[in-house]
Design a protein that fits this description.
Strand content: 15-25%
Number of domains: 2
Enzyme class: isomerase
CATH superfamily of the largest domain: Alanine racemase
GO molecular function: alanine racemase activity
CATH architecture of the largest domain: Alpha-Beta Barrel
CATH topology of the largest domain: TIM Barrel
Oligomer: single chain
Mean pLDDT: 94
Number of helices: 11
InterPro entries: Ala_racemase_N (IPR001608), D-amino_acid_metab_enzyme (IPR051466), D-ser_dehydrat-like_dom (IPR026956), D-ser_dehydrat-like_sf (IPR042208), PLP-binding_barrel (IPR029066)
Shape: elongated
Radius of gyration: 23 Å
CATH class of the largest domain: Alpha Beta
EC number: 5.1.1.1
Number of strands: 18
Order of helices and strands: EEHEHEHEHEHEHEHEHEHEEHEEEEHEE
Distance between the termini: 22 Å
Keywords: Isomerase, Lyase
Low-confidence stretches: 1-7, 9-20
Strand order of the largest sheet: 3-10-9-8-7-6-5-4
Largest sheet: 8 strands, parallel
Length: 394
């Protein structure tokens, strides 16, 4: 969906939006030029390592953003909901990996997708799930492809490397007519890395864990052709992807303050922000109040365990630069509180009522999830040239 171009420049000030400009605040602003730069950065790295990309679309949940990943076309993607799978399939994406542990009652939707020509792959880590996939295959005549999830760091689900359960799962799948397509691992623990060396080590451990389980499957007679790894931190830190066939990452298209906090990107790489308006002041408390609360930015506090806590987000001018040490430190449903970072000697900026500012997200996935659309800047300008829809639901 393309809107009439709207200019966020002003004649006199850079901290206001001109009358008749963009939509009511708060709204989600996307810098297309930064998105394209972020995409090319990862694609170039994976070309160097000789591994394909299966981007995770759960961050953007946008067909328009996904098309940037494939030069306007389509390609293999990862989704986190069957709603995403259905929506992307309707736009020509037919190679889809549903990378959330499978609830057996969803298998009817998986079968329906295959009958519509979509190669929808599922993720399992138990014999019980394998039995459900095998039963659905037998009952439908549709050979359902499944990945065996590998747990490399105790972060969430998965079979630990060396656990014979992986072979047992493959046996149940194949005996029932389903397909043990390969293994999948997500190094969620990499988000807790605090140095480049730790990120590199997490990436190598992720790779080695996946390859080991794939080799165990092959040693038991299963082809397991696909070895799928990936998170945004490890995708950017990996130095060797031998044995890996594809990398999944999603946050990299936008980045956020969590990624900046662990050294995966710079704050200047963040491509998404929430535009809010100053609606009040509490000078005796050092507060600036905006119309953007947690309904606009989310309650994610992902940097609270990092060396530098960024609250609910850093605050920037519309024309780019950050206000020194100005942080969104509190949020109610529709109110955001901006204060100077504790211990800083910076002065609270003079932001009159009506001033519009950008809040940089702590967690891009969570912030984007609060909104229905992206207001997209035309590259090289401060003009909103298009509005891109995003998906919701399961």
């Amino acid at each position: 969906m393309v809107a009439t171009p709207q200019d966020i420049r002003t004649a006199d000030r850079t901290d206001e939006i001109a009358t008749g400009g963009p939509p009511e605040t708060p709204f989600l602003l996307l810098d297309r030029a930064r998105v394209e730069r972020n995409i090319e950065r990862l694609r170039a790295r994976l070309r160097q390592l000789g591994t394909g990309l299966r981007p995770h679309v759960k961050t953007a949940k946008s067909v328009d953003v996904a098309r940037l990943l494939f030069d306007g076309g389509t390609g293999p993607i990862t989704v986190s909901t069957l709603r995403e799978a259905d929506a992307f399939a309707s736009h020509g994406f037919t190679d889809i990996l549903y990378a959330v542990g499978l609830a057996p009652h969803k298998l009817g939707r998986v079968v329906a997708a295959h009958r519509a020509g979509v190669d929808l792959q599922v993720l399992i880590d138990s014999v019980a799930q394998a039995e459900a996939v095998a039963a659905a295959t037998t009952g439908s005549g549709v050979r359902i492809p499944a990945f065996i999830e590998v747990d490399c760091d105790g972060h969430r689900g998965g079979v630990r490397p060396g656990d014979p359960t992986a072979v047992r799962i493959a046996e149940v799948l194949e005996r029932g007519g389903a397909e043990a397509r390969g293994v999948l691992v997500h190094a969620g623990g990499s988000y807790h890395s605090r140095s480049r060396a730790e990120l590199v080590a997490a990436a190598e451990h992720e790779r080695a864990s996946a390859v080991r389980v794939a080799e165990d499957l092959r040693g038991a007679g299963f082809a397991a052709p696909v070895v799928s790894v990936g998170s945004t931190p490890t995708a950017h830190a990996a130095e060797d992807l031998s044995g890996v066939t594809e990398v999944r990452a999603g946050n990299f298209v936008f980045f956020d303050l969590v990624m900046a906090g662990i050294g995966v990107c710079d704050v200047d790489d963040l491509a998404m922000s929430v535009v809010t308006t100053v609606i009040g002041h509490q000078p005796e408390k050092g507060w600036i109040i905006t119309d953007g609360g947690w309904m606009a930015t989310s309650r994610d506090r992902g940097t609270s365990s990092q060396p530098i806590d960024q609250g609910y987000g850093l605050v920037a001018r519309l024309d780019g630069p950050l206000y020194p040490d100005l942080v969104m430190t509190d949020a109610s449903q529709e109110h955001g509180t901006l204060t100077i970072r504790e211990g800083s000697g910076a002065a609270l900026p003079e932001l009159p009522v009506g001033t519009q500012v950008r809040v940089l997200p702590i967690h891009a996935c969570a912030t984007a999830a609060q909104h229905d659309v992206y207001q997209v800047l035309q590259p090289g300008t401060r003009t909103i040239g298009s509005v891109w829809s995003r998906l919701r639901g399961w």
